[in-house]
Amino acid sequence: MSVPAAPPGQPKKAATAAWIGSALEYYDFFIYGSAAALIFPTVFFDESDPATATLLSLATFGVAYAARPIGALFLGHYGDRLGRKKIMVFTLILMGLSTFLIGCLPTRDQVGTLAPVLLVICRVLQGISAAGEQASANSMTLEHAPSDRRGFFTSFTLSGTQGGQLLATLVFIPIAALPEDQLLSWGWRVPFWMSIAVAVVGYVIRRTLDETPAFTQQTESEGVAKLPLAILMREHWADVLRVIAGALVASVSTIFTVWALAYGTSESVGLSRSSMLWVGALANLVALGAIPLWATLSDRIGRRPVFLIGAAGSAVMMFVYLWAISTGAYPLVLVLGIVTFGVVYSAANGIWPSFYGEMFSTRVRLSGMAIGTQIGFAIAGFAVTFAAQIAGPDGDDWFAVALFTTALCVPPVLAALTARETHRIPTELLGTRAPGEKNDRERVAA
Predict the structure, then answer these.
(1) Distances from the Cα of 99 to the Cαs of 252, 255, 321, 385, in angstroms?
(2) Comparing C-alpha atoms, which of 181, 179, 188 is closest to residue 105?
(3) pLDDT tens, 416-427?
(4) Residues 6 or more apart whose Cβ sits within 8 Å of residue 361
(5) What sequence ranges are listed for the domain Major facilitator superfamily (MFS) profile (predicted)?
(6) HSE (CB half, 13 Å, CA atoms) of 384?
């Protein structure tokens, strides 16, 4: 039975809702990343030992990624039972509230060690929210989209991610330029408070969305799965492993956004905060255009080749980008930063929502995407902490960090090489096998 077409305007409305929600989620996430690299070591940790303070601050950035798999189990389960819309609304409210509270936290000078504890609690709530946000938004847009344009419509989730990151960077540029005393007293709080405005807009749009035709049909014809996780592990275990491996490509984003920012503004390189923030801003601006173009290309030639370009290309370009930072030549850093993150990485980043989502059937799609991506993202989140250790006591061993990033790009390449091509499969047949086709267990046995 074919899935009925979505009502007129719903695919665009779903894509817009996904864009705004993802923009908020990742505005919140990346203002935290910028603050963790530039401000939190002084505000929340012992500034008498700057190296340790920076390491601990970057570790709190990774804490949210550790919370993501837990949130994925919970939100994935209910998303496949209750629908995509309810989870999209819940995650938006949770992220907006937890981010606002970070801006209200007392500092270490005010309450001592309680300050970093409260910071970690809010960061965990951010992680739980993010665990369900992308998977629910991706499922919503994929299941509303025409079968031949799923790549394009699902790419709006990641365009929103880059839009949120761009907004976070633009907000932080004037904040970082404040006098030191104003920056560390009240200035850093403003970006966190501003998230409430975006949350309200996103909430209004998401409340008016229809549930997807695919989920509605699944509910009416077969009913929802009582235990989506059990079905997922029985029928799609190999695809979950592929998504986990593929999601490691997000290490490129976290290393670029957080570690490279800290490295570029360190004493060994000496670039200014504002100049390095502009690299990220312009790279994200380019990504806003590159992501839908790569996604449209994947609708024509397939998901696998485009994803491979992004994963393998990022492994190479991170070497070049980190080398450029080590030279201190800002024009070189700017150009290579834009090419690395804005163009090459966007190939993988822009099409993974369709690539991963098309591996699963409707009844377990949200669970499969949430669990697979969030386990992979958890590893990617702590890549920043590992990079800070690998970089040595002075934090300037860029070659070791580049080699580490390249190693994390190998599993995504292998995941793409072993995956089925799905861009021409009708939506109602996604996650099923053609007659006579072996499943992964049979392939392994053979």
Answers:
(1) 24, 22, 31, 22
(2) 188
(3) 999 999 999 988
(4) 235, 236, 430, 431, 432
(5) 14-424
(6) 32
